[in-house]
Write a structure and sequence with these properties.
The protein has helices at residues 20-30, 52-61, 75-87, 103-115, 130-138, 158-163, 187-200, 262-274, 280-291, 296-300, 305-318, 348-359, 385-407; strands at residues 36-37, 98-101, 121-126, 142-149, 155-156, 169-175, 203-207, 231-237, 250-256, 323-324, 333-334, 337-338, 361-362, 364-365, 377-380. It is of the alpha/beta class and 408 residues long. The longest helix is centred in the C-terminal third of the chain and has 23 residues, at 385-407. This is Pyridoxal phosphate-dependent aminotransferase.
Length: 408
């Protein structure tokens, strides 16, 4: 039998499930070497656990969670999502507009699959969360990347977005708060994106999974609250704000101009039915999470763990020669830049591999987020302050050696 060729569409599906850097990390761990992981926002790995009331409610209801639910999900958590959208200022949402999923990731794939035909284009930020690019390609579409401007705090460039709209463009993906940069978008910018969608009849896909992970008193605005004459598909879930990555509990809300989207909504309903339903235990956590004490507020407060770790990572990184960072306003990540004059990196994946091999620190190279240059990497600041200080100290040491080697 001939070997089965892997589809080229799967070549870059995700930075966290394949590639030489992660293969090397797995090998090192199998050999008993301890690695400091700054590569993925898996909160539980760093001792950030779900709120106890969520856990206890799931335990109490687990005996009744053995059956399928409605394909869109249980009524009570969907109603809780409706109330949450009302709190965010989004109008006209009913329970029928809410879909529960196995994390926001499943729902993003569902939403893109229902819209994209072969050759259709979706505008995606660069840098991006790699899932966006992957699912557009897997759906037969073409991902078109618009540039986010580091000099403007990683805000999307409206002129660049408009220049990349074509007759085949069907939608625009907006990640706010942003992964991997930690940017938070002002209302003026959101209104500018909405105006482009209105002008060119585009669907807005709004990934708002980090909408409560905000620092320095910043406030998040849901895009769907700013207009009702554009079709919005908004994604959110428990993974980050409630440190419940493994529960795979997310939701999708369709709002705004729905009159001309009946075929699209029918497609969403069909895809929801095809996967039967999302996992019931995860659904049971949503109502309690949204209605309970918001412990994320304590973590992002000036004295909170996440804020202190963000501040420390920013301080230590910006002390390294040739390293600059836009300080995150939100989320769990930062996207440092390495001055190409000091660090002439031709292959940032090789750079990440060498850092791992020499210093046992795992990061993700910037090109893994569809950033075109080899001059950035993403770092999560989830480790506790001692581990974070140690990890960035090792990065500092590695970069000092890199400078010596390339100045010789």
């Amino acid at each position: 039998m001939k070997p089965i060729a892997k589809s080229s569409k799967l070549a870059s599906v995700s930075y966290d499930i394949r590639g030489p850097v992660l293969d090397k990390a797995r090998q090192m761990e199998e050999e008993g070497q301890k690695i400091i992981k700054l590569n993925i926002g898996n909160t539980a790995v760093f001792g950030l656990t779900p709120p106890d009331e969520i856990v206890q409610d799931m335990i109490r209801n687990l005996g009744d969670a053995g059956g399928y639910t409605d394909s869109k999900g249980l009524f009570a958590p969907r109603k809780a999502v409706v109330h949450y959208t009302q709190q965010k200022g989004v109008k006209g949402v009913t329970v029928d507009d809410v879909y529960l999923g196995n994390g926001a990731s499943e729902l993003i794939q569902m939403a893109i699959n229902a819209l994209v035909n072969d050759g259709d284009e979706i505008l995606i930020p660069s840098p991006d969360f790699p899932l966006y690019t992957a699912v557009v390609g897997l759906s037969g579409g073409r991902p078109v990347h618009y540039r986010c401007d580091e000099g403007a705090g990683w805000l999307p460039d409206l002129a660049d977005i408009e220049s990349k709209i074509s007759p085949r463009t069907r939608g625009i993906m907006v990640c706010n708060p942003n992964n991997p940069t930690g940017a938070l978008y002002p209302n003026e910018l959101l209104l500018g994106i909405i105006e482009l969608a209105r002008k060119h009849q585009l669907v807005i896909f709004a990934d708002e999974i980090y909408d409560k992970t905000l620092y320095d008193g910043n406030v998040h605005t849901s895009m769907a609250a700013l207009a009702d004459d554009v079709l919005f598909v908004t994604f959110n879930g428990l993974s980050k704000n409630y440190r419940s990555c493994g529960y795979r509990a997310g939701w999708m809300v369709v709002s705004g101009e729905k009159r001309h989207a009946r075929d699209y909504i029918e497609g969403l309903n069909m895809l929801a039915s095809l996967r039967l339903c999302s996992n019931t235990p995860g659904q049971l956590a949503i109502q309690t999470a949204l209605g309970g004490y918001q412990s994320i507020d304590d973590l992002v407060a000036p004295t909170g763990r996440l804020c202190r770790q963000r501040d420390l990572a920013y301080e230590l990184l910006t002390q390294i020669p040739g390293v600059s960072v836009v300080k995150p306003k939100a989320a769990l990540y930062m996207f440092p830049r390495l001055d190409p004059k000091m660090y002439p990196i031709a292959d940032d994946q090789q750079f990440a591999y060498e850092l791992l091999a020499e210093e046992k620190v795992l990061i993700v190279q910037g090109t893994g987020f569809n950033w075109p240059e080899h001059d950035h990497f993403r770092l999560v600041f989830l480790p506790n302050v001692d581990d974070l200080r140690e990890a960035i100290g090792r990065i500092d040491r590695f970069l000092a050696g890199y400078r010596r080697r390339h100045s010789a």
